[in-house]
């Protein structure tokens, strides 16, 4: 009898400790949720004041991800990379979200050399390209000065060769910088920010064939009434309701 009472007492103590642990865990979860929501509100205020820094959009994406909004997190990571294509944390977090996406059409499988080229172009963000343009411009001026003051009797092959190389590199770096700036200012990408977005093959009949999961990335081609015509990453054209998508230009 005493042994039974002792076992019952120990069981009651363990149940009480477990309840206290669950209660403290829920309190911690609630406190963390409130902190994330508070941080999001502060960041939204900074964005409303006109701040346009890549780290601001990255932190907004992190907050939305913690609050269970992967679609909005993807959107803000894309915005970060639109401003700074070499942002390592945004690229890492975006890749994780895309890898977790159940849609295979949302995942790009490029050949190795193509992916390597994309990675190099991503590493060359606006700031690095601007530095390269200045460096190649300086080298081009030096080579031109060298050629102009080169001995008339000497072979002019070396200065002409160096001037041609520096000029070519200057033109290439300037072209990439201009193209990246134009693409950043005219970015037509959008993200599915609802749990499931219904896609339609035909605008007239609006017969749904499949759904796109949250975090899916598309490119807006045109707009009709309350629908967007979008191009998926596999190249196919579909129609999606405007309410299911959020464009990068809208944030």
Jot down its keywords.
3 domains, elongated, 7 helices, disordered N terminus, 60% helix, Serine Threonine Protein Phosphatase 5, Tetratricopeptide repeat, 251 residues, alpha+beta, SH3 type barrels, seven-stranded antiparallel sheet
Largest sheet: 7 strands, antiparallel
Low-confidence stretches: 1-28
What would you say the CATH architecture of the largest domain is? Alpha Horseshoe
Determine the structural class based on helices, strands and strand pairing: alpha+beta
What's the total helix number? 7
Q: Round the mean pLDDT to the nearest integer and report it.
A: 84
Overall number of strands:
7
Instruction: Quickly count the domains.
Output: 3
SSE ordering: HHHHHHHEEEEEEE
What strand order characterises the main sheet? Answer: 3-2-6-5-4-1-7
Structure report:
- There is one protein chain.
- The protein is an alpha+beta fold.
- It folds into 3 domains: 28-106, Alpha Horseshoe (Serine Threonine Protein Phosphatase 5, Tetratricopeptide repeat); 124-185; 189-250, Roll (SH3 type barrels).
- 60% of the residues lie in helices and 14% in strands.
- It is built from 7 helices and 7 strands.
- The chain has helices at residues 2-48, 54-66, 70-83, 88-100, 112-123, 126-148, 157-185; strands at 189-192, 196-200, 208-213, 217-224, 227-231, 237-241, 245-247.
- Strands 3-2-6-5-4-1-7 form a 7-stranded antiparallel β-sheet.
- Strand 4 (217-224) and strand 5 (227-231) form a beta hairpin.
- Helix 1 (2-48) runs antiparallel to helix 2, helix 2 (54-66) runs antiparallel to helix 3 (70-83) and helix 6 runs antiparallel to helix 7.
- The longest helix is centred in the first third of the chain and has 47 residues, at 2-48.
- It is elongated.
- The model is unreliable at 1-28 (pLDDT under 50).
